[in-house]
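note to self: the first set is below, dont mix up w the second
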Amino acid sequence: MCSNRDSIIFQTASGSSLCVVPVAPHTFHIRVNRTGLFEAPTPLTRLGIAVPPSSPVNWHTENAGDVLRLITDEAILQLDRRTGNASLYDKSDNMLTRQTQPPYGGGADGFGAQFALSEDERLYGLGDQYDAPLMKRGRVISISLRGNRVHAPVPLLLSSKGWALLVDTDAEHEFDVGRSSPDELRFHGRRGELAYYLIAGGTLAELLGKQALLTGPSVLLPLWAYGLSFICNQQAAARDLIEDALKFRREGIPCDMIGLEPTWMDRPFDYEAPVRWHPEKFYIPQWMPEGAHTFMGALQTMGFKLSLGLYLPESPRDGTGSVTDNPTWYDYLKTFVAQGVQGFKLCTSVPIQEQRVPADQEDEDAASTLTIAGSIGKVIQEGYAGQTGKRPIIYTPVGYTGVNKYAAMWSGGRNQPHLSVLSLGLSGIPNMGVDMNLHNPAGIHFGFFQPWSKVNSWAYWRHPLLLDTDLLAIFKTYAKLRYRLLPYIYSAASVAARTGLPIARAMPLAYPEDAAAVPLQNQYMFGDELLVAVFTDQVYLPDGEWIDYWTGDKYAGPAHIAYRTPPHAGGPLFVRAGAIVPMWPDMEHAGQKPPDQMELHLYPGSDRQYSLYEDDGVTLGYLRGESAATDIVCKHKRDGYHVEIGPRIGHFRDMKEQRHWNLFIHTRDKPAIVKVNGEQWREAAGARKDPAPSLWSFNRRAGLIRLSIHEAAAGSPQSTRLELIYSAEKEARRSEPQPARNGSKARKTSGEIEKELEIGLETGDEAKALSALEQWWEARTAGDRSPENIREHWLYMNGLFVRSVERKGRTLSEMLGEEPSYRFQPGPDDGAEQAYETLAQMAKSIVEYDNKQRGRTNEIVRRATGIIMQELDQELSLQAVADRLHLNSSYLSRRFKKEIGKSFSDYVLEKKMELAKELLLTGSTVNATADRTGFKEASYFIRVFRKYWGVTPGEMKP
């Protein structure tokens, strides 16, 4: 690299030689040795990790005495010819970093360099060090697999000041990040030449992107690999393997990959001789070794992919030569791939935590093992691609810079497993998964919100079907949610592969300018739209509005909140207001259903743009541009909320020509008009679970608008446009929750006010009903009191009154009789005040009629029913409600039966079951519905629901 005209070579006063090459407009490669010879490629280039520049870099030099400046379009590197010290500047000539001592390399003292650190500078990266914090300043980090509880040491350091450093070596070395000297960064290796890259400019996310350009894109795993993987107990035989798979399918738990530990083979795999299936555990008749009749064929029939465990070599060399440089050993795996194996689990013969070598026993001359996993992964990936034309999943417990180009990472149990995932994401390795702790809700919560999810039995019994009822219900909830989110996750994975921005994004990556967010380690963004907090009940919500995914409650940020996790969940999960989240319907494995049916969940609140990425999910065609992108834009305009689903741009194998979208718009406000491609659609009668074509439905209690639309055929330039039109400009703004302070729930929407009005009418609370009616009327008519608008809202409220009284088995005419207000129809000369007065009189008449029918003792029952309606998510016993009303429970029971016409328990059950039905029809999960109707156990809720409605909750769901 340093022998061409695009390099600068000079010698310092101390005799060291420097070679500098601008390899990109923002990146410089620097080498230091004692010989002045720079012919041989550096380790990262020799190993194929560093990618040669795709095009020449435009640069020039400026000389001023002993100062040499290399200037590109995006950065400046200043060199002191006497010392070799380098200083890095951005294109505006602002200093990013500088060396404080001359760099050295190629001599008896090894290699190293020192950089100044500013007072508030934060440094991230350096891979996965056991329980090390995300921010590495003040730590000593060893880039070694010996003597450390470490999986993936990565010599990449990112600075909050807009620069990054990548050490170009395969030798072990050490970083001292401000530990010995608080204002200095130092790194040192025991032997070899010094070589490193300096990268200039941008946020942490931008620096990751520039590093990805330098080392090449990460592997995009097969789409199914982002689902759930399960590794059997190491003693498993073929029968156990099939039984584990059947348990997933019988219970309806989605899962894609099932794996075996290295005990599947007849002898240890040594990369020098072929292996076979263990003759007793996995007997395969040699006359018919392939096909649906084998245990592998049975797995394929059920939709499973099989992975096999392989032990990594303990050294890069054996007695005959280099293992990692010899690709022919892949021939030993071809038979298994032909039989259907689609993944390989690389593992160490001794658990990482136990691989501790005393310092006095370390061999300084031993060959480095840092790059073994990457080399093995490369051989398998290239061999598998050549044999099948498809992508495997290769996952390894150890790695180094560049392993992300061929394999995913995995780790066993950790005290703080999320730090492994987030740290590797900050080190250019986006595909990291830690074994799931499925024996507590928090472990399940985190386990399903990491880049790829894995349950690893190993020497234990960790099948989800062995969990107790409550944990199994939580596991199912998360597994199904994970699979519904696969289009969203895969789109984020494609971004990670191209740009280095990981799926699980630490808060310094996602919110670098938010001083309150940057230090947080127990929460992160999962893709663009979801905020996940793990192993904590304290959550920080950045600026903007956030929706609690489990409850639907809305919060205004920035704010710190104390979070109470619902019983059916394992931790906090929030959706950013404005979010665009594509989903699949429920399925047991990826590809079970064709991708022509999609869901699109929209959360109005801010203008957003989202790009849905798709390819065939299995082949390498995506590397040749065989993929498609769908841009989705949501905007708030003067008249309401507008959505545009752009045409699919691109094509890939087996792409469906047309797609059907089921839209779910999460809002409490009902639009006056809904248009699709300029055509006005009618509202469906009631909250239909599947609105017919050209119809839309609104469920106020669930806060959900639903409709189904067809996307334009592939190749068509047409977009699909949706318009939710409200009646006035201010309504469009006021209908959304307004900012609240200190993380309190956002102010009520007009839809929530309607719910309060209905409760007031239901319970005979005149004050509550009239107060809610007044708030609703003011919100609806603010800014537009035209006769047309007044009449529209007056008629709408009449409809609400009709629905309210019909639920009681009566008619509006029966209740109002000859009341003049009932016959009133707003005309062109009638103002908002007169129209409102007629509505208020109608509300009073409804309440008075009910109270008259119930008798004077109605106040007691009214208060009891008010408690019931407000607290359907709680356990409601007669004794508890009586205690709150300071009454004898027997007396309350008698009065309730007399006034309502049914027992207290029957009334509570009726209201809970009505709410449960409504929630299920609008897409709520069974577990979430059970929680919102006050059932602690989902299994008990299912039994009660089936007895009441005659069908199970699952059968009731859309």
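second set (the one i keep forgetting abt)
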Amino acid sequence: MIDRQTREYRFGDFVFVPHRQLLLRKGVPVVAGSRALAMLELLVSRAGEVVSKEALRSHVWPNTYLHESNLKVTISALRRLLPHATADLPYIVTVPGRGYRFVAPVQVAVEQAVAPAEQLPGSPIASTPLAGLPITSAIVGRDEEIAGLEARLAAEGWVTIVGPAGVGKTTVAVGVAERLEERLGDGACFVDLASLTDPQLVGAAVATALGVHSDAADLLAQIVDILRGRSMVLVLDNCEHVRNAVATLAEHLRTVMPCVLIFATSREPMGSKSESVFRLGPLQTPYAGRELTAREAMTYPAVELFVTLAEQAWDYVFSDDDAPVVAAICRRLDGIALAIVLAAGRLSTSSPVVLLGLLNESFDALSLEASNGNPRHQTLLATLDWSYRLLSRDEAQLLRLLSVFTGAFSMEDIIGVADDRHVRVAEIAAGTESLVAKSLVSVTYLDGALRYRLLDATRSFAAAQLATSGEHRSAQQRLADYLLVVFERAEAEWAWRARSEWTAAYGRRANDLRKAIEWAFGDDGDAPLGVRLTAAAIPLWDELSTIAESVERAGRALRAIDGTEPGDPEVKMKLMASYASGLNFSEHLGREVDAAWQEGYLLALGLGSTDYQLRTLWGHAVLQSFSGRHGHALATLERFRVLAERENDVTAMPDGTRLTLMTRFYLGEVEEAATGLTALARSQVPALEQARVARFQVDRLVGIRVGLALAVWMRGDHRQAQGIMQSALDRAAELDHRVSQSNALAQIGVPLALLLGNIEQARRNGALLARNLSLHETAIWSPVSRFLDGAIAAAEGDPQSVDTMRAAIDALIRNNFVIRVPMYLAMLAEAALAHDRLDEARSSIAAAHERSDIQAERWCLPEILRVKGLVHRHEGDMEGARQTLWQAVEAAAAIGALTFELRAAMDLAELLDDAGERTEAARLLSMIHARFDPSLCSRDVVRSGEILERLRGG
């Protein structure tokens, strides 16, 4: 019987001696990795049989999770080592769905004393096995880095991959080494230095990995002797805690052994002039807010890695429904490869949704039960703890402090929270750069400026250390104090700095600000500081369109003031104005909103603040207009005008003029409003960038164009109305101010597109409005959005549209947001007639007439009369229909609403035609139709042309 320890296999030109890890071809050693040789041993020992993939995994990688791609890579590498046995017959063939078979004839014999042709007498090299490359997780999304590093290593000779814990440094290093070992004469040797506690043991670890055990005093000299004449790559993994010793060894080897390439991984550079440093970033993840299908999500390496591992381990099936959840998981993990590997392993017990919830609460869910894995890699937090323990006392304290930031931060921010009498700015900067070098702080460029950031897992770990150190309250106090200074400065800059620059500078701090305010109003916080912070933040909330948040935070701050000693009256004035402004967009416009505006005005009057007197007067006028009190709104706006002119506040006057003209528009002064808004729009173009959104709720130019578009449409200028509407929507989108955009979409973007007959555009704009409302809650527009959805459906003949429109109008009336409700009721009545719901139409048009009188909204009276005439006609009252339609034509002419005049004339002409008065019908309609550009393709102009053609043709 042949002892396995002395067994050798012969096939073709090859001799394979497994226990010596020796493969010879024609007596010449073949450089091969230990995994490839282990796989070859199993295949040749079972030559002719099918060896399953599972059997290969168990033999080569016992007790180790393995991605199938690793198996395929090793099989491919083994095939490259073994050229075809004959011209058309390989040594190893694939048996689809089952595994692999070694098909060449194999002879088994006792090992002979074979001397390789190129082995020198007494040389320890040829038979000395190298420590093979380890098994790594699937290599996904790193092709570009691996190719670049392969070329760089060949050119530079020594490359150190630097990156944060778990980013995949070892995986990439092994990927590069695998490619190099195929073409280097002596392959690759892998040395894991993680377990070393004494830097002096680095040399011994390298010597052991090279296969030589020696007690020689000059170990470095023996390593050089071992490597002499070899062409290979030496991979030194996990060097951060012994980097000085590694640097000394590597520098010496590069000097005396230039054919040996050195590849190191570390969380910070070795600090040698000889090394080339490559910083490895996380895997790319999908951007937040982007809706992706499963196919699209898989184009992102982080998602691809997660899904690949989950599919291999748990037969997971990736779907479109899971795509946003998996994308969020990968974002939460910052694309860190180790974290993704650990998270994918949790799918055996958790769905993606549950896993995301766990990760949002804590990173403790990321653990791996592995008996033979590196303990530092069995939990993500363990890898961070390893790095943390290597920090100096000051570095550790700074890292803990930086965990108070929620996202990216600047050096100014770091100094702002870290500076005190005992630490100099230079020391803070040096400490930060040291943390960057150690890959605990990431560096990026945002808007052309240098920014720092803790990855989420690092921040979570550092925050836990902050809490256990007893420094949490002090750190939060520092952050809040610093942000108060920042946002009081921001409030002053808001008056003169370009909006785009201002929002870029301060918008990025919004989450830090939220965190500081939450802490300040918490149990161990500082409520007076929270009140001041909230007041200083008002311009930011307004510019970011966070209406609901602004109301909630201002309300809480006001309650805090009322529950304590009277604070700064100026702070209370600002908070009250902000609170009232937010209530203007709330679900219900009740008496409490009037009271808030009145109290804000009285506070401003008492303090002599012209700015806040104007703000509160303007906001109160908006409320009065929204709630159908247009006469009161005009009176309030007159007080606004007198004050602005007396104080010569030229920046406020255009906003008052715009709102006054729109109020007069609703009162029926259509021609005057169109003329005035046209002049106002022209006057504002040169000062475009000086307008500020936050002062008067909506961007000035957007507001002017919204009103102007509707006014010129009613005047009959349909093409101009379409252009102005689009310019308003474009500017709102460019500003990225959701309140301005929602106002534009709700007031013209959807209704005017619908009136012009552009159903598809109305649908697109309606969807955008709904999306805005889901992102930034402005409750006031929700019923309007639902009504407009119903109106679009009505235009397409949907019988359910009537109920949708009715429910939305009822909500508007309950909420006291009744501006335009008379027009909405007329639209509802016409939709009801289209579906033969006469009672609904009759009651709706009666309510429209009543509300038009109560609210003095005469702008839509011609439409109410027109639809009322249609109701009479459906009732069979032809004389009543004729008289009412004539009233509609005359009412439209009286206010300069040519479009409404045309709409009423079309219905009247069809009534006259049915009564046998075709000539009169044609005469009436032709006079009005002739006043429109015949090339217009708007719905009303097209329809009137078709009616005229029919009348004349008859």
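remember for set 2: The two ends are 113 Å apart (CA to CA).
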